[in-house]
Amino acid sequence: MLPVYDIDRIVFASSLAIHIIIASITIGMPFAVGTLELYGILKKDESIKNLAQRISTLILVLFAIGTLSGTIVAVEMYILFPKFMQIVSNTAIISLYIEILAFFMESLFVGIYFYSFKKYNNSILHPIFMYLIGIFAAMSGFLIITLNAFMNYPVGIEYLNGQYIDINPYSIFFTPIEFIEVSHGVLASLEFGLSIFVLFISYKILKEKDIENIKIYGKALKLTIPILFLSILLVGIFGINSIDTLAKYQPVKYATLEANLNGNISNAPENLFGIVTNNYTLIDSIQIPNLQSLLYGSFNPNTVVPGIYKNESYIPSPNDITIAHNSFDIMAIFGFLIFFISLYGLISLIISKEDKKDKKFTLNPKYTFYMNKLLLYGLILLSILSLISLETGWVAAEVGRQPWTIYGILLTKDAANLNPGVVPIAIAFELIYIALFVLSIWAIKRYFINKL
Amino acid sequence: MMNYSFYFYTYIFLIAATILLLIGIEIALALSFFINKDLYKKYENLFLSMWEITGTSIVFFVVQYEALLPSLLIPVAYSFYPIIFIILFLFIFRNIGIGFFEGKSINKEYSKRDILIYLFGTLIMAILLVSILSAAITGYGIKIINGNIVWGPSIIFNYFTLLLLLSTILFVLGILGYIFNVKKFKIYGLIGYLLVLLDIYLYENTISYLFIFSLIILLILTFVNLKDIIQRIIFIISHYLNAMILATLLFPYIFGTININSLLSQSIPLLSAEFIVSIIITIVVIGIYYFEIKTILS
User: Fold this and answer.
1) Chain B contacts in chain A segment 358-417 (CB below 8 A)
2) Which residue of B103, B284, B298 is in closest CB contact with A57?
């Protein structure tokens, strides 16, 4: 039987996993829809404008579910980890406090956008409202990830009379890992949201038979693929940089993600996948000699990389290392695949000619891009890989910090609600929540996507 | 030095009052679908979009509570988790329903059944919120045993809560009268207020003279014809005034047993930062919401 705090972790992680999906879509999708509508207004293209406005209904529904999942995460964080919230309340709550402002603004602009179709018809103000929805959603993401950066690297607090007290509320925004972690996290959400938009358009093209409608969807794809590619490129750049930051400021976490279990060593191999045994030995992994030291130390194989000493106190459990390390590898490998698919899409979009009337499977990037089934299925695959990367990225980030909830300050087992009575209720609630979420996705498809 | 204790307790109560007002308006407009179609048509878009600001205000309340009362977080989490999960479940039910409802409403595809679901979800949420507010004031049904909070069903089933619930229902009807100027409903608002006064009298054996101001205001609003906009403004001001007076009942013991003065966060820099941010949030949100209402109603 798992200890109560592990059940708290699992319940909270599953809620968070759902919320990340919805929140990321509401960060990315408004930028795609806003761009489409702006294009429609500037080019006086009614068909594109109408398409943007129809798809925007989806954002409204997702916003409703996102409000819900966000509230659930906020309340669960408090119910399942009360000690954590108590410390955050005394130290780093300012980011959550400001996040409320972003949340208010997002919800207000959702209302303004949806009830001003007539008033601001053909005005560029209307798509700007949609951009603002995305900007404030991204601001929420920025503030939440700021709290996460604080959990990884707490600053600006003092231990006084038995409790942690904030001595500088704004220092949370200036941790050395803030810029890289927040940029990487928000961009990854933006990328995933955009990829869901691209998935929707690709799915519609594959299903559609009317060539005129396909052309409209093709135009939408043409406008979105460059933004998607740019976001993927930026996620990659910040992702690579975040590895260096991790090694410098969170060496134990770095070692966990890389499964370096023999202390600090030079000529370190890159460990791909594998399982960590109870005596902290990595088995069943693929090892590429020297690669980790080469990548970490500007191509010098003698560079020493951080590692875990198994006799040290407060290191992650073997299970946690296995989960964090494999999640990290999946994220990184899928990240590369995502990049190559989007690059293929971008090249195809640039060099293909818009004269084909039949959908076809072909590797030839010159074939009309929105008629190329390989690309369309590739884009659908891209969004699935983006989803897995997003989730595994967060699993790696959170499990990789164990056994700490706030590094060096609060252990997860001390943060959790240890009342055994919470277990059955929390599990029952979570099952209902997941069932309702699945039902919502089904209903969104049936009542909204199929009607768009 | 700034008295943060007074400021934040008043502020958190004003947020609660705002939530109650917004939920009241939601229910009143949902009811108008069945009793006054013209009124419903006029304010349809406002009704359809209201849940967004209501939901956000509820989240704001939760964060405000987490930010200000760190010492209360652990005992409440260990004791009230079942009731909090029930509220969360109802919140899921309401939001999923409303999300689809509003999505369908873009093409005016919603039905009477959808409004009933909306009404039901909102009503249950209102009942739970009023019950918690009532428990915070009186502490009926709550005991502290060995430092743990222990509660039972009488947290809801006691005269104070039931009377407060009844007056809330009448208050909702009063909203139709005072905010949307359906004259025959004004009297319900007045009766609802008198019930609140009776409730407080039964609980405290006395009534603060401050409550008389609101009574006079309501009497004027009920029996004197004023311009719509003036009537609305005065009613809303009196609502907030009542909320502030009601907040004084929380002192010095919240839930009847926990000394409220020892709960507030001890970090002065943090409270100072929250003070600044709370003012910015209030000004910006009211400003943009005013713009939203104007946009919606135009």
Assistant:
1) 417
2) B103
Chain B from 38 to 97: CB within 8 A of any A CB:
45, 48-49, 51-53, 55-56, 58-60, 62-63, 66-71, 73-74, 76-78, 81-82, 84-85, 88-89, 91-92, 95-96
Is pLDDT above 70 for B114? yes
Residue A262 DSSP code: S
Kind of pairing, strands A157-160 and A163-166?
A: antiparallel
pLDDT digits (tens, 9 = 90+) for B169-197: 888 888 888 888 888 888 888 898 889 88
What is the distance of C-alpha A283 from the center of its chain?
A: 29
Tell me the sheet residues that pair with A46.
none
User: What pLDDT shows up at residue B225?
Assistant: 83
Question: Distance (Å, rounded) from C-alpha B151 to C-alpha B158?
Answer: 13
| Cα–Cα separations (whole angstroms), residue B114 to B1, B102, B111 | 52, 10, 5
Dihedral sign for Cα B141, B146, B149, B150, please.
negative
Distance between CA atoms of residues A322 and A19, nearest Å: 24
Q: Read off the pLDDT of residues A169-204 as tens digits, 9 standing for 90 and up.
A: 888 899 999 999 999 999 999 999 999 999 999 999
B213 touches chain A (CB under 8 A): no
Nearest Cα of chain B lies from the Cα of A222 at a distance, in angstroms, of 27
User: Which amino acid, residue A173?
Assistant: F
- pLDDT, tens digit (0-9, with 9 covering 90-100), for A390-449: 999 999 999 999 999 999 999 999 999 888 888 888 888 888 878 877 877 787 777 667
Asked if residues A64 and A233 have their Cβ atoms less than 8 Å apart, the reply is no
The stretch B151-180 carries a mean pLDDT of: 87
Note whether A175 and A155 are within 8 A (CB). yes
* Token representation of residue A444: 């969104």
Helix (H, G, I), strand (E, B) or coil at B177: helix
Q: In Å, how far are A332, B126, B210, B220 from B235, measured between CA atoms?
A: 59, 20, 16, 10
* Pairwise CA distance, residues B120 & A248, whole Å: 54
| B251: nearest Cα among B265, B242, B266, B263 | B263
Rg of chain A over CA atoms, in angstroms? 23
Q: Which residues of B touch A433 (CB under 8 A)?
A: 92
Contact criterion met (CB below 8 Å) for A22 and A65:
yes
A115 sits in which H/E element: none
Rounded CA-CA distance A398/A393 in Å is 9
Residue B69 has pLDDT above 90, yes or no: no
pLDDT at A161 exceeding the cut of 80: no
Q: ipTM of this model?
A: 0.80
